[in-house]
Design brief:
Helices cover 42% and strands 25% of the residues. By secondary structure, it is an alpha+beta fold. It folds into four domains: 81 residues, no CATH class; 120 residues, Efflux pump adaptor protein, beta barrel domain (Elongation Factor Tu (Ef-tu), domain 3); 51 residues, OB fold (Dihydrolipoamide Acetyltransferase, E2P), CATH 2.40.50.100; 103 residues. The longest helix has 51 residues.
Amino acid sequence: MQIVTEHDPSSSVEVLPRELREEDSPISARPVNAPVTSFRETYDSGISEQVRTRHRGARWLIVAMLVVAAAAGLYAWKRFTPAPLPAGFAVSNGRLEARQVEIATKLAGRIETVLAQEGDFVEAGQIIARMDTNTLRAQLQEARADVARARTAVDTAAAVVEQRRSELELAGRTLKRSQELVKGGFISSEKLDTDNAQMKVTSAALVAAQSQVVESKSAVTAKNATAARIQADIDDSILRAPSAGRVQYRLAEPGEVLAAGGRVVDMLNLTDVYMTVFLPEALAGKLVIGADARLVLDAEPQYVIPARVTFVATEAQFTPKTVETASERDKLVFRVKAQIGPEVLRTYWARVKSGVPGVAYVRIDSTAPWPEKLAIGLPPG
């Protein structure tokens, strides 16, 4: 039996000793021959156990990450690798493209106003911007005044022609009388010679007057052409969209002075949207212009867009760098363009975006039916 004295540190009162049974004593609980473990050994063993636990957790984390990466790789492979197609079809990846149009000034000048904003949809012939035309309008007024003077000159020349014609008639009558008088001996032959010379001079003057009329009329034509050219420059100062499309970049602002050919707006021609793909010679040689095609965009794979082959290159080339693998880039291929119909583009203008990647399926054999997964499926209009 052991005697244990209990003492409460928070109190100054010492409690009376009490008896501790032998089976409750920590000394008696340890076997007699059991080794005594030091504090250092106990601490080290605890740390080692923690390290082993952490290592096991790290290994499990790495395994989990590898599993997730493998699953993601499998999904990506299934997602971006085209499914096998039946005979009579070809498949290749590409990007959706739209023809870019640069709207620029014809003449140097100052921009008066720009009506289009980036992202605006415009129709063919819609006004995009206007240039300052004050100088051109002043030149047009001057050209019109020159036209009026030239027409007056034509009238004057015509009057001179009538005058010369009258003088020629008078000279003709005078010469005729002189010829009769010379026969009768009433006048000398010198007078006859003078009247004959006057007749020739008057005739030449008439020809000259008629030439002046032709020259005056040519001057009117030239002045009219000058006025028309200036009017054309004024009309060209109104910049219009050459086709329906979407404004991509607004490159100039009102008040800026641009040189001839200065770009004001860049736009995408949304009536000419296509996907360029590359096919090997064995497949490209069987293609015909107008063959059916289907486009599936990576961003919206649930939709299938109808298209037609509108271009097949006449010369082979190495596959561009946009193709994923180096082995594919070493092959000679032919460039093929699959174009979307304008009626589809008109309905889905707002959804057309240049540069979107996708996959093009081209039908080589016109008798082969399209697989069910490539049936035309367009989003709601």
